[in-house]
Amino acid sequence: MRVLGIESSCDETAVAIYDSSKGVIAHAMHTQIPMHQEYGGVVPELASRDHTRYIVSLVRQAMREAGCEPSDIDGIAYTAGPGLIGALLVGSCFARSLAYAWGKPCIGVNHLEGHLLAAMLEESAPEYPFVSLLVSGGHSMLIAVKGLGEYELLGETLDDAAGEAFDKTAKMLGLAYPGGPKIAKLAEQGRPGVYNFPRPMVNRPGMDLSFSGLKTHTLQTWLSSSQSEQDRADIALAFQDAIVDTLVIKSKRALIQTGLRQLVIAGGVGANAHLRERLQEMTTELGTQVFYPRLEYCTDNGAMIAYAGYQRLKSGQRDGLRAQARARWPLS
Ligand code: KG4
Ligand code: ZN
C-alpha cells in the first residue's frame, strides 16, 4: 500500500510517500523559516499564502522521486489539525480535491499523532505500548501510547510548550527564530555552573510541565547581567539545562508510574542533542529503552503524516467528501 502524505499545519510545506513494504520512498519539503525570521515568528497569513505557492510542485516532486503515477497511490493523508487554520485549509482542500480527482480514499490526520508515530519509521522502531515525550513548538506532553488512537495523557504543559519557551527565550536573548537550535548552539560556549536555573514543577507530584516562570527567570537574569557574549552563552546553557533536566525527570516518572519499558521522543525539541544524551543515560539506568525519529522526522515533515494516514487507512478508516481543518484538536 502506498500513501501520499501532505503536511501544512505551520511553517513547513511537506509531502512524502510511504510504501508499506519499502518505507518512505519520497520526501519533499519547503521550509518558510527564512521568510518568517524577519518578523521573529510565524505570520499566519504569510504561511497560508506560501503553502499555496509550493504545494503543487512538492507533490509533483515527490511523485517523480518515487517514480509513481497516480494509479500507484492507494490513498492520500493530510494534516487536518491542530495548527494554523489558514495553513491547514490549504493542505486539506488540496489533498481532498486531489483524492477526489484521482478517485482515492482520503484521511485527515492529527498532526500530534503523526509526531507520536514518527519513530516507527526507523529500523529500530518501538512497539506498543510505550511512553511518548512529545515536545514541539506548540505542545509538551507525556502520553501513554497503548495502540493506534489509544492515547492516555499523563501530563502536559500548563502554559508554554518547551519549543515555545526555547523560541521566546531566544528572542529575548536577541537570537533569530526558531530559537531552539540557536540556543543549543550557543549553549556549547556556555560555562557550566555559572548560573543555576530552577527546574519548574519537579517538586510537585505528577507529570505536568510549566515553562513560563523559567522564561521570566531567564529574562531577569539576562537583564541584570552585563549582556556580554559570554553572559548570553552562560544563560543559554543554564536555560537549556533547566528544560532538559525537567523533561528527563518527568519522563522518568512517567516510565516508573506506568511500568512501561520504552520511551519514544517526538517533536522538534526532540532534535536537541543534550536532551537526547540525557534521556539515553536515564533510560539505560532504569533498564529501559529510548527511541528517536531521525532529525528530519522530529520537526514537521510529510513522512509522519503519510505513515499515520497509512495506519488509519489500513484499519479501514476514510473520510467523506468534506475537507477537514481544526485549529484545535486534542489527541483524545
Ligand atoms: O515539531 P516542530 O517542528 O513544530 C511544531 O509542531 O511545533 O517543532 C518546532 C520547535 C521549535 O520551537 C524549535 O525551536 C524547536 O522545535 N527545536 C529545538 C531544536 N530544534 C528545533 N529546540 C531545542 N533544540 C533543538 N535542537
Ligand atoms: Zn509539529
Structural write-up:
This protein is of the alpha/beta class. The chain contains eleven helices and ten strands. The chain has helices at residues 33-37, 44-66, 85-102, 111-117, 162-172, 179-187, 212-223, 229-258, 273-286, 295-298, 303-314; strands at residues 2-7, 12-19, 23-31, 75-81, 106-110, 130-135, 140-147, 150-156, 262-266, 289-291. The strands form two sheets. The protein has a five-stranded mixed β-sheet, with helices on both faces. Strand 9 (262-266), helix 9 and strand 10 form a beta-alpha-beta unit. Helix 2 (44-66) packs parallel to helix 3 and helix 8 (229-258) packs parallel to helix 9. Bound molecules: 5'-O-[(R)-(carboxyoxy)(hydroxy)phosphoryl]adenosine (KG4) and zinc ion (ZN).
